[in-house]
Design goal:
This protein has 110 residues and is an alpha+beta fold. The chain has one domain: Winged helix-like DNA-binding domain superfamily/Winged helix DNA-binding domain (Arc Repressor Mutant, subunit A, Orthogonal Bundle), CATH 1.10.10.10. Helices cover 67% and strands 13% of the residues. The chain is built from six helices and three strands; from the N terminus they run H-H-H-E-H-H-E-E-H. A hairpin with a 2-residue loop joins strand 2 and strand 3. It is elongated and about 65 Å long. The two termini are 34 Å apart. One of its GO terms (molecular function) is DNA-binding transcription factor activity.
């Protein structure tokens, strides 16, 4: 199970990365194409430094990769990191569905 393979710190980084609207939007964008940090910064009403910090949070969570191309930093979605998140959430869904089914069984007994 992915849940068992990740440390608490790794789980915290993943959930922290998705806890912010801007980071979720950046993920949506870089999942389908690459963007420079400058290009991303132009899309948001915040400073370049603020966008850089959002990208750094995503990078620490292994959800994006950065590559230096000339003077630009190119950001791409990290397929392996996104796949890990998908498997993690699938596992949580199974756990919760099992719990709901068990509650339904208990209620049916009464």
């Amino acid at each position: 199970m992915v849940v068992d393979q990740l440390s608490d710190a790794e789980l915290d980084r993943l959930f922290q990365a998705f806890a912010d609207t801007t980071r979720r939007d950046i993920m949506r964008r870089v999942a389908v194409g690459e963007y420079s940090v400058t290009g991303l910064a132009a899309l948001y009403a915040m400073s370049f430094a603020a966008v850089q910090k959002h990208v750094a949070v995503l990078e620490r969570a292994s959800l994006v990769t950065k590559e230096k191309r000339g003077r630009e930093q190119i950001v791409r979605g990290n397929h392996d990191g996104l796949e890990k998140v998908r498997r993690l959430l699938d596992e949580y869904e199974v756990i919760w569905r099992q719990r709901v089914a068990r509650i339904a069984d208990i209620l049916a007994e009464e």
